[in-house]
Amino acid sequence: MHETAYQITTHNPASPTPVPAGYPSYLPAHEGPVMLPSEIPPGVQMVTLPGGIRTLAYTPAQDPPAPSVPVAQPIPAWAKTTALLTPTIGGGVAAAGIGLSYAAPGLIAMSEALWAAVALIAAAAIGVPLLLRLGRAATGTGRSSTHITQNITASGMFGRANGTINHR
Questions:
Q1: pTM (2 decimals)?
Q2: Distance between CA 16 and CA 12 in Å, rounded?
């Protein structure tokens, strides 16, 4: 009914078998025909029994471990704050740009008006004294200007003051 795929043998210590070439020295002494690891069918593994004997045994197929489901982490407070401030800052920058675009013609005109005011002040600082001198010279009266000299003297901190005025 069942067909045996592998021959089952028992250990016979009276007739030891020779060690095959290339058999690793760290394994226990060779006790019979050896299967190469590539010859072991799926579901069969080399196991060590409690007595120290190594043998082949059927092992149940192990299901691969289920992938762990990532746990949702709370969002840090700094990230929430930054996320809330970003549109506000962007909106402020956009509003400033729009305001400057509307104000640009007025700012240019104001700049030109300020330069005109500076030029007027500079012209007045140079021109007014020149006109006054030319006006005096044109009258030709020859009179010199009046000089008034005042001499005031006082004795002490709260003493009476006396003074003279000289017209020349």
A1: 0.28
A2: 7
